[in-house]
Amino acid sequence: MTRKKTGQITLHRENTVFTAGYCFFRAELPELLAGVPLLHPEERAYFETLKFDRRKTSYLLGRMAAKHAVAELMGEADLRSIWIDTGVFRFPVVKYAGGQNIQVSISHCGTLGVALAFSEMHPLGVDLEHIDEGRLPVLATQITDEEKQILAALGLPETVGFTLLWTIKEGVSKTLRTGLTMDFKILTVKSMKWAGNTIETAYRASSQYKAFSCYDKDHVLSFILPRKTKVDLGGFWEAFGEMG
Ligand SMILES: CC(C)(COP(=O)(O)OP(=O)(O)OC[C@H]1O[C@@H](n2cnc3c(N)ncnc32)[C@H](O)[C@@H]1OP(=O)(O)O)[C@@H](O)C(=O)NCCC(=O)NCCS
User: Fold this and answer.
1) What pairs with residue 219 in β-bridges?
2) CA separation for the pair 4, 212 (Å, rounded)
3) Using one digit for the tens of pLDDT, what is the confidence trace for 91-125?
4) What is the pLDDT of residues 145-192, one digit of tens each?
5) Topology given in CATH for the domain delimited by 127-227
6) Ligand 1 atom showing the smallest separation from residue 109 Cα
7) To 10 degrees, what angle do helices 145-154 and 158-175 make?
8) Do domains 3-122 and 127-227 have the same CATH topology?
9) Within 13 Å of residue 58, how many CA atoms lie on the same side as its CB?
10) Ligand 1: distance of its center to the CA of 85 in Å?
11) How far apart are CA 96 and CA 102, in angstroms?
C-alpha cells in the first residue's frame, strides 16, 4: 500500500524566515506504476527509456516524493505541471511554471523515497541509507581515523555510525551539487554530538553547513542545512519514524 507523509519545515535566519516542504513516499513498483500519469511528459519520456525495475522504482519514488514536496511548499495541486529534470552532475532541477527558483533534494532507498523542496535562497540536502553490515568494509575506506574517534565517542553501534557518517557526507555533496565525484577531504567532519534524539554534525572544510541525523532499525537519514540556520525538525523526524 502506498504511504505518504508531507509537511513543512520553518528555517530561521537572523533576519528572515524560509519554508521548506518535505515528503516521504513509500511504495512498491506496481503501486508506483499507477502514478506514471502524474509524471510531466518530459519525465514520462525519460521513464519510458528505463529498463530495470530497480531504477524504475527509484526514479518514481524520487519524482513522486519531490513533486509532493514542491506541491507542499507551493500549494500546487497539479503534480503533472512540476517537471523535475536532471542537471549535468545528475542533480535534480525543478522546472515549474507556477514558482521560481525552487530546488529539490532527493534520496531513495528500497521502497522508501524522501525529498525536500526549498528556495534557491536557502540550500538544503537530504540523504537516506539502508543500514547494512555488508557495506561496512566499503564505508570504512572513506572514514578518517579522527572521524572514527568522533564516532566512537557517540556510542553508536559501528554499522549505524559508519552509515550515518556516509549519509552526512553524501548529503552535503548533494547540497554542493557535485555528488561524490569530489575529493572526500571536502566532506570530512569536525565534530558530532547528540542533540536530543538526533546527532548534530559540524563539517571541517564545508563549514558553511551542518547536518542533523536520525536513525531507526533499518535506515539512517541526514538533513543538511546552512550552519547558522535554526530549525525544529521534530515533525520531519516523526514522519520518518512513521514511514519505517
Ligand atoms: C549523488 C549521489 C551521492 C547519490 O547517491 P545514491 O546513494 O546513489 O542515491 P540517493 O538515493 O541518496 O540519491 C539519488 C538522488 O540524488 C540526486 N543527485 C544525483 N546527483 C546529484 C548531485 N550531483 N547533486 C545533488 N543531487 C544529486 C538525484 O536526484 C538522485 O535521484 P534521481 O537520479 O532519481 O533523480 C551519488 O549518486 C553520486 O555521487 N553521484 C555522482 C557520480 C555519478 O553521477 N555517477 C554516475 C555517473 S552516470
Assistant:
1) 130
2) 22
3) 999 998 777 799 999 999 999 999 999 999 999 99
4) 999 999 999 999 999 999 999 999 999 999 999 999 888 889 999 999
5) Ribosomal Protein L22; Chain A (3.90.470)
6) 11
7) 120
8) yes
9) 12
10) 13
11) 8
Whether the predicted pLDDT of 60 surpasses 80:
yes
| Residue 149 beta carbon below 6 angstroms from any ligand 1 atom | no
What 3-state DSSP class applies to 220? strand
The number of beta carbons lying within 10 Å of the beta carbon of residue 141 is: 7
**What single letter denotes the amino acid at residue 88?**
V
For every residue of 180-208, which 3-state class applies, written as one string? HHCCHHHHCEEEEEEECCEEEEEECCCCC
Q: Is the pTM of this model over 0.90?
A: yes
Show the CA angle centred on residue 219, arms to residues 113 and 172, nearest 5°: 70
**Structure letter (DSSP) for residue 83:** E
Q: Mapping DSSP to helix (H, G, I), strand (E, B) and coil, where does residue 223 land?
A: strand
For residue 229, is pLDDT > 90? yes
pLDDT of residue 96: 83
Please give the distance, rounded to the nearest whole angstrom, from the Cα atom of residue 235 to the centre of ligand 1. Answer: 26
Domain map of the chain by residue range?
A: 3-122, 127-227
Q: Is 3-122 a domain of CATH 3.30.1360.30?
A: no
Ligand 1 neighbourhood includes 113 CB (under 6 angstroms): no
DSSP 16-80: -EEEEEEEEEE--HHHHHTTGGGS-HHHHHHHTT---HHHHHHHHHHHHHHHHHHHHHHT---GG
Cell numbers for 212: 542533523
